[in-house]
Amino acid sequence: MSTREILNLQFGHYSNYVGAHFWSIQELSFDYTGTLKNEVNHDILYREGQTAKGEVTYTPRLLLAALKGSLKTLPETGGLPSEQEEANTLWENVEKIEEPPAAKNEYLTDIDAESTSTAKEYDLDQSVTTWTDFLYPRFHSRTVNVVREYQHDNDKECFEISNTGRSLWKSDYGDNFMDNIRKYVEECDSIQGFNVTFDSTDGFAGLAIGCIEHLADEYSKSILAHPIIASHFPDNNPITQEERDKSNLKDSTRLVNLAMSLQELSEHASLFVPLCMGEKGWRKPGNGRVFEYVNYKPELYYHSSALLASAMDTLSQKYRLKSNIYTLSDICADMTGYGRKMAAASLGMPFTFGESEYLIDHLNNTTKPIYSSITPSCKIATDKIFQLITVRGIPESYLKASMNEAKAQLNLPAYRCNNVKEMFQLFFQASNFLSATNITVCEKPLQLKTPYPKIFSDKLNRFGFLKNNDRQEVVESCPLIAGYHNGNFLADVLEKLHREVSRIKFGKLHRFRDEGLEAAEYAESLNKLSEFKDNYEDEFEL
Asked: Is 337 strand, coil or helix?
């Protein structure tokens, strides 16, 4: 059986926050004892290599882009000591001028000393200032690609305009990035495609679009893209009139970057799914998405990115399971009928009920939605939709009572279901009119090991289910549900975006014009976005 490899690409500061959690979740789930059942084929996202010293490495098949100054403690060589030593050997006769290395927090120091403990508490809420401050894995030497022309968190060297990113892609930076893509692809036996995650509101949007256009032209493989909007921006709460004016200008810039990115994705990506932990997404992210038993702070990227990473890890299970032959191209093909390349995503975390309750009773009695949209300005419909749902972490023992104890359960049609998958299939058949739902069930819950933030309610037991009493337990894992959804309801999302961005006069987009955007090009992009929206307005039946 072929490996069916996937190459992951990350562009931007917030996307790298999401990626840091995603790869930490992967690596902390590895079983080095060989005694645990492993549902996932890790070779799909990871590659085995060897250093010049003969040491075996197992690193994410990943390329990421980051601005100068955002790496902090992570070396550009990826962080593996042996690879760092090799890089130093190559340059040993060259005089180097380096800044003093950044100080590592307690968590990173313990990783280096191989003394991390699940029992030890780290105050990462206070010590995390960038995504490398909680990064557990180390990377291959070609993974990190620094944009040296722009400084992170520097208003004088800001990377805010998508056209700036497109220009950067056409420079030596893009050539080197393409070369790294080629090297990864040549190592693969049977590559499925590409998973691209990028910040969609700044210069990284243009850089990512340039890369996606290259992937579409050069490789006949599926491209799944997740354009991401951060959960909070520093200018979100202006006080003075001057601050409000600057914030409005930044909002307009972010909105134009986003709209132009989605329009380009409609042409070059196989499937794209916008993500944001804010309810609005534009102009400002808005209030954070509410999850009943999760207490997170949207203004902390360390918190909000963990939730998005949990969703992406769960959604990706479908094409990574050993028992499943479903591929990335299957997902893209199934979700994009009628030219509808944009889909929405959802997350229910934790998907929880009483520790002495059964799933059959919970699904029968619940009156609340079992998931929340994590796509900006999007309310997911319940009728005339196609959806791919992944459920994880619900033991079969929680399915239903035994025949002698079932009582009222015996009168429910769901009692005839023999497993978790069948019960969810029946639930969605009853809940969604004229819809098609494909269910994937994973036995293992999401493991909440450090550096995952401590954001769960004390009402939950260690497995993420509601406790029957007030005993103290630390949540170690949780069940959850996540989904991709497509249907007519997305016309409203695109209409809102098009209407909002159309209010911005091109004459006010001085920086876009300075970066080469023409009025005719801008108008054409908005017209194409409107035409793309039309794909969602025709009535159809599944």
From this structure: helix
Instruction: Please compute, for residue 524, the number of CA atoms within 13 A of its CA located in the half-sphere on the CB side.
Output: 6
Q: Which of 296, 140, 268 is nearest to 209 (CA)?
A: 268
CA distance 53 to 68: 30
- SS3 state of residue 2: coil
> Which candidate, 430, 431, 435, places its Cα nearest to that of 489?
435
Distance from C-alpha of 512 to C-alpha of 257, rounded to nearest angstrom: 10
pLDDT (tens digit per residue) in 404-444: 999 999 999 999 999 999 999 999 999 999 999 999 999 99
Q: Which residue has the tokens 């399971």?
A: 321
Cβ neighbors of 369 (< 8 A, separation 6 or more) are 348
Per-residue pLDDT band at 93 (split at 50, 70, 90):
low
- We find that the CATH architecture of domain 6-334 is 3-Layer(aba) Sandwich (3.40)
Which residue stretches of 170-300 are H helix?
172-187, 203-218, 241-268
What sign results for the dihedral spanned by CA atoms 343, 349, 353, 358? Answer: positive
3-state secondary structure of 323: coil
Sequence-distant (≥ 6) Cβ neighbours of residue 273 within 8 angstroms? 224, 225, 226, 342, 343, 344, 345, 375, 484
**Other residues' Cβ atoms within 10 Å of the Cβ of residue 133:** 20
Percent residues over pLDDT 70 in the chain:
95
CB 497 within 8 A of CB 258: yes
Strand 62-68 relative to strand 144-151, pairing: parallel
Rg (CA), the chain: 23
**Residue 79 — very low, low, confident or very high, per pLDDT cuts 50/70/90?**
confident
CB atoms inside a 10 Å sphere around CB 256: 25
pLDDT band at 116 (very low <50, low <70, confident <90, very high): confident
pTM of full prediction above 0.85: yes
Q: In the numeric block, which tokens belong to residue 219?
A: 């490789």
| Residue 435, number of CB atoms within 10 A of its CB | 18
Peptide bond into 283 cis (omega under 30): yes
Rounded to the nearest integer, the mean pLDDT of the chain is: 93
* Pairing outcome for strands 6-11 and 193-199: parallel
Cβ pair 293, 456 in contact under 8 A:
yes
Amino acid at 129: T
Residue indicated by tokens 């970057």: 257
DSSP code at position 507: G
Which 3 state secondary structure label does DSSP give 327? coil
Residue 410: both structure tokens together: 């015996």
Residue that the structure tokens 């990421």 belong to: 64
Which of 213, 227, 147 lies closest to 181, judged by CA? 213
From CA 104, how far away is CA 101, in angstroms rounded?
Answer: 9
CA distances to 9, 45, 210 from 215, rounded to whole Å, are: 11, 18, 9
What is the pLDDT at residue 53? 77
Measure the CA angle with vertex 37, ends 36 and 38; round to 5°: 110
The answer to whether the CB of 211 falls within 8 A of the CB of 169 is: yes
Coil, strand or helix at 442: strand
- How many helices (DSSP H) and strands (DSSP E) are in the chain? 15, 16
Phi/psi of residue 339, each to 5°?
75, 15
